[in-house]
Specification:
231 residues, alpha+beta
């Protein structure tokens, strides 16, 4: 009887350790991935187009001009898609994430265990778009050459699904406020391709120095200067 109990306890301990090893391995991998840069030779140019990274401590958005260098977002995500956008809003924030997390959790307090589980294992990716008046609220700033910005513009555009008229397909959802909307996106969002990894991958495609893999926002924003810091 004693031996059986001892074996039972050993197996219980092994199972518990195995369960704990999964999140620990994920965190370690995230730390390592964040420390490995892609496009390590990139340097911020003296002149160019400034974009921003908005960081709420969990999620990152890329904030870009509505129109610059002949690249115009206004026909694709017009203000008319939103409820009430201020006339002087000339910047747009783009983010990508799992559908249920975006549409069913207006605040982090609304996040359920079921929704979190779906987000981790894999769900439909959607695009979140918000018109912005003043982008300087963002945590980080990055200056790009015109060519880097064109590549970033194209990389962000690839995230959308388009209809027969070449317009992003809007999701019937009121958004979080009067100036934002959701659109159907390409691909899946999961524990490996998170909202922050999406943002990092767009910057990598633009040729900007960015982490190899950063599911957490801290590993992404650490690469760039504070928005109120000039270079």
């Amino acid at each position: 009887m004693t031996r059986r109990r001892s074996r039972k306890y050993r197996w219980t301990a092994r199972i518990a350790l195995a369960i704990l090893a999964v999140p620990l391995t994920y965190i370690v991998a995230a730390l390592v991935g964040a420390l490995v840069p892609v496009n390590s030779g990139w340097r911020e140019p003296d002149r160019g187009i400034t974009i921003y990274i908005a960081d709420n401590g969990v999620h990152a958005d890329l904030v870009v001009p509505a129109s610059v260098q002949g690249l115009d977002w206004r026909p694709l995500v017009p203000k008319s898609d939103m409820a009430n956008v201020p006339a002087d809003a000339q910047w747009i924030a783009f983010g990508a994430g799992e559908r249920r997390v975006y549409l069913e959790t207006p605040t982090w307090g609304d996040l359920s265990v079921r929704t979190a589980a779906v987000a981790l294992t894999g769900g439909e990716q959607v695009m979140h778009v918000e018109w912005v008046e003043d982008p300087t609220f963002a945590a980080r700033a990055i200056r790009l050459t015109p060519e880097q910005y064109r590549r970033l513009w194209a990389a962000i555009r690839e995230g959308f699904i388009f209809d027969a008229n070449g317009k992003p397909v809007r999701i019937d959802h009121p958004g979080y406020g009067p100036r934002d909307a959701f659109y159907h996106g390409n691909g899946k969002a999961n524990a490996f391709h998170t909202c922050n990894q999406w943002a990092a991958s767009r910057l990598r495609l633009a040729g900007v120095k960015a982490p190899l893999w950063s599911p957490f926002v801290q590993g992404l924003v650490a690469y760039y200067r504070p928005a109120d810091q000039r270079t």
